[in-house]
Write a structure and sequence with these properties.
Number of strands: 10
Structural class: alpha/beta
Number of helices: 12
Helix content: 25-40%
Radius of gyration: 19 Å
CATH superfamily of the largest domain: Periplasmic binding protein-like II
Number of domains: 2
CATH class of the largest domain: Alpha Beta
Low-confidence stretches: 1-27
Mean pLDDT: 87
Strand content: 15-25%
């Protein structure tokens, strides 16, 4: 039976609650044979983050859908296990690292950017695809008429909206020195541009998949960096650190899938996702 619950606790709470599991359950998922066993007896918990067409939450009684779920189905077939008894768990950008590393989630298929901070918290698979990042503002805001790069937005009179745990929050926290931040909780990346429309912030930063959807739905908004994103980052799945043996078996399977015609055909069906070439040209 497929079950799913949403957990919205943050990094500190996740580590505290999952400390015992980190010593036991996460350590046991050390190879593909163990993953198959857990999938077969209904003990494999797979996490995902609602992310529009990339991973869509279909409600508590159904598995999620979307591009990465279909890729995971391809992976399951290649790895020799069924998805019928998988326990799906909806997680958030802020909590996913703690849940994976604690063992509360065995395997995350969330569309997470590989960033330095996240790589310190979890072990990533090989990249699956990449997305660029942008910044959205109100179209009638004259302050942004001459913006040509992300560095132009680091101004002391600007407030930048980001979602907690999302990679743009990491980027701004690391690179910006002058602008102030509005950090929003929850999994909805549209919350950042919504905060700009509501007057709570001047600029929203997120990936251009999210911003492109939002700008199309709200013509009074514009992606200031459309066509020249400030960074292009790989997206990958994640397991707990220390599972190098598992990754050594998973990654060749993922490479074969990504190089297949079936994967290219799958990408072609998801026309709304602006797939970018992987920065390291991996295929």
């Amino acid at each position: 039976m497929i079950t799913r619950r949403t957990f919205l606790f943050g990094l500190g709470a996740g580590i505290a609650i999952g400390a015992l599991a980190a010593c036991n359950r996460a350590a046991r998922l050390s190879n593909l044979a163990e993953l198959r066993r857990r999938a077969g007896n209904g003990q494999l918990t797979v996490g995902f983050i609602p992310y529009y067409e990339i991973t869509t939450d279909e409600g508590p009684e159904k598995p999620p859908s979307g591009f990465l779920v279909e890729v995971f189905s391809m992976f399951a077939a290649a790895a020799g296990f069924s998805m019928e008894q998988i326990r799906w768990r909806s997680i958030t950008w802020a909590s996913f690292g703690a849940l994976v590393q604690s063992g509360a989630v065995d395997f995350s298929i969330a569309g997470t950017f590989v960033t330095p901070a996240r790589a310190n918290a979890v072990a990533f698979t090989r990249p699956l695809f990449a997305l660029g990042n942008g910044a959205a503002a109100r179209k009638d805001d004259a302050r942004f008429k001459s913006v040509s790069s992300v560095s132009d937005l680091d101004q002391s009179d600007l407030r930048i909206a980001v979602v907690a745990g999302e990679q743009s929050a990491e980027y701004v926290g690391r690179e910006f020195k002058k602008a102030s931040l509005l950090v929003l909780d929850g999994p909805d990346l549209a919350a950042a541009p919504t905060a700009v429309r509501n007057g709570r912030a001047d600029v929203a930063m997120s990936d251009q998949f999210i911003l492109g959807r939002y700008v199309q739905a709200h013509p009074d908004m514009v992606d200031l960096l459309r066509g020249h994103p400030f960074s292009v980052l790989p997206i990958a799945w994640a397991v707990a650190k220390g599972n190098s043996g598992l990754l050594a078996e998973i990654n060749p399977l993922l490479s074969t899938i990504i190089q297949s015609d079936a994967y290219k055909a799958l990408q072609a069906r998801y026309t709304t996702i602006p797939f970018a070439p992987l920065p390291d040209n991996r295929r």
